[in-house]
Amino acid sequence: MWDLVTAEIMMNPEHCTFTPLALEVVIEEGQTEGQTRVIEGAANLNVCLDPDEEAIKQTLSQVFSSRK
């Protein structure tokens, strides 16, 4: 489901308010391996923390209910 929402937001970036954050992925072996965490420093990407849920649902509903 998350990949679908991500794809929708990338096609319609106006459906989200993006926040610049500094993030890294834990690569050390252990229980937190693969976890994404906020770090100190300059932002290295923009994160969608405030999606427009209704707009996303509407778009996906239109896509999956359309016929050719």
How many helical elements?
A: 2
Helix content: 25-40%
Largest sheet: 2 strands, antiparallel
Strand residues, percent? 25-35%
Listing every helix as H and every strand as E from the N terminus to the C terminus, the arrangement reads HEEEEH
Shape: elongated
What is the alpha-carbon Rg in Å?
16 Å
Question: What kind of oligomer do you see?
Answer: single chain
Structural class by secondary-structure content? alpha+beta
Strand order of the largest sheet: 1-4
Q: Uncertain regions: pLDDT < 50 for 5+ in a row?
A: none
In angstroms, what separates the terminal alpha carbons?
A: 24 Å
According to DSSP, the number of beta strands is 4
Average pLDDT score = 93
Describe what this molecule looks like in 3D.
The protein has 68 residues and is an alpha+beta fold. 34% of the residues lie in helices and 28% in strands. A two-stranded antiparallel ribbon has the order 1-4. The longest helix is centred in the C-terminal third of the chain and has 13 residues, at 53-65. The relative contact order is 0.24.
Set out the fold topology.
Blueprint: H1 2-11, E1 16-21, E2 23-25, E3 36-38, E4 45-51, H2 53-65
Antiparallel strand pairs: 1-4, 2-3
